[in-house]
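User: If you would, consider this record:
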Amino acid sequence: MKQLILLITVLGMTATSALAARMCPATGRVVDEQGAAVEYATVVLLKGTEQVAGMATDGEGRFRLEVPTGDYTLSIQYLGYDPLKQTVHVEQENDLGDFVMHGSSTEIEGVVVKAQLVRREADRFVVDVANAPAAAGRDGVELLERAPGVWVDSDKISVNGRTGTKVYVNDRELKLEPEQLLTYIRSLRAEEIQKIEVIPTTGADYDADTAGGVIRITLKKRRENGLNGSLSLNGSASAMGRNLTPGGNINIHSGRFDLYASGWGSFADNRSVSNETTRYTSGDAALTSHSNLKSRVNNGGGTLGALYEIAPHHSIGAEFEYWHSDSDDPTDTQSDFTQGDRLTRTQTRFGAGDYGDNLSATFNYVWKVDTLGSTLKLLADYTSRRNASGNDNFSRITSPAATRDSTYRDRTTSRYTIASATLALDKKFSPRWTLKAGAKFTRNDMDNDALYEYLHGADWVRNDRQSFSIDYTENIAAAYGIVAANLGRWSLVAGLRGEYTHTTGKQVGQDYFSLFPNANISYSLSKDGAYSLIAQYARTISRPSFWSLSPQRSQISDYTYQTGNPALKPSYTHDASLTFVLKHKYTLTAGLTVETDEIQQTILPDADDPDLLCVAWVNYDAMTSYYLTASLPFQLTRWWQLNVNAMAMRHAQRVTADDPVSRQNLYSLYASTTFTLPANFYIDLSYRYQSRVELGNCWVEPQQMLHAGIKKRFGERFTLSFNVRNLTEERQHVGARGEGFVRRVDMLQFWNSRQYRIGLTWNFKSGKAFRKKSVEAGSAEDRSRL
């Protein structure tokens, strides 16, 4: 009997020890005094004075922490609320319930939070900006430059260097030109940004043509009544021109009602200089050309949106956006064409002008189905864009035989409409399991009319070979389903999207159905998740942009023009990768991309006059890339931060099925460092290098850029910045080699000239700070093709 009692005691102690060592999930929810969720509050569990787990609450105020069974101190903190501390007992699968935070009349100072600032989830990186002391005083672009895998250069933002990356702020895509997009994001300050999510490979809930990844920026949100906003003015100047970009926004919250408005402008007066040399290999002909483009651009627009909470779980919203663009781009060129000892000189003035109007409207209805955070959304979107362009050209051609003048012009009108309806369900069965499902229908219409004429005597004569009228209609019906699971150290997000596309109006109508699977599997190598492995796969489609389908002819120089291709086909991509995460933030990714019918530009001799070169859109036959990327954010000291993003790629491509496969090695490096000085001064340095890039028969020579800047914050309201971009002022060198020609062009433009920039931002508020809500759009991916 004594032996039996001893055996039971030993087994009991063993079982108790095993249970205590087992990781148990502790879940709960953080709410304010009115019962509304407190999003992105920092929640940590302490064992004595040591933190054993921590995270930020989600959009419903929920959290999930995994620790061994036992007693802990739960600490919850968020700016604008009194800190909350409470003793809790954690055991197997227990719900700690709701924790109520009380508003504070003063801001919290000196709060030290050890929660991980960068964490990796199954399908994305999450940068917890709100709890990053080093982020204070930075703007949105500076924060993106330090996010894992994000590349920011002079004219675009991308994930791992890919084209087509989309940027969202509060669930709404920023549908702006690259420079305008960067200007807007620079107006955002770290103090108003809650988190940044980087999604390298999108899931089935995004349109299948979201192949370049997604960056989501979430602004802070509070429930208190009041208003806030900002005004900014940024100017830049160089030897190649100047640019002025004012902007402002205001956000109002009162009870159940949210109203927000913003406006922006971009006024530029720039020029571009290029020198071209072309050698014709089939004879003794050669071409030298010099072009000088002067561009005046006036862009501006605004957004007005409102959201009303009908009931605690039901809300409706509407948003209207309008912008206008107007540009005048005259170009003077002089070209010398020599053949033997015969010289023909062409002097031309290309008088180009362009204007456009864009109007978008969005409506949504959101039903919060349960307290777990499940939602049902109905989204309706409409976008209308009208563009008109014209060219009035005059050429004087002088040859040994004679001198003749040529006057010609063109007028093009383009109209685009996008209408879509989306139904999306996000069902959370438990903190572990989530199901997403939805359906979407999109109708895209494009109508292009172009008239080309030349002056014959005193009469204008229509050029029937170049004039055209094209109508293009595209109908896309889609349905998707996604399952997400959090199973201890394993996390899974897997989905399938089906899209049926029917097009009419092109040279040949198309009907096709495609399936787009995706999967993201994550395994934590350590209990705290600091080390993990993530495997990802997705199949996506890249549909041609509307303007690349238009056969409009745009003269670049006397002997070079650009045109679209109505016969372009969509391309399909398979992307697989494996990522190793160290200490939550250092990442190393190895991947493979296989693309068929890749959409790219190439340079070809004109079919009627081989001395002319045409820059045309075509479908490449196949492309395969093996890549390795690294993201290394170092905090060297409290006042010195260094961020390094690097990529190496082995790229293989075949332009046509009969061509041999060409291979090349590509390298990219982006490094930025920030020094935090006393009195709220900051010094920023950044460097970017891109090796030689070859696409088809075209190439771009290696490029490097060096930027430096200084910033001063005056309290919490004003920020003054000054920086110098492209200190080395390197020209861009591009070339092409084709049947019968070799071409090289050297260009100096506003973006790659040495620029001096100065900016001033004023943030204002009345009442308590909060994050504005915004109306979610369902056609964001479709609009990007405009």
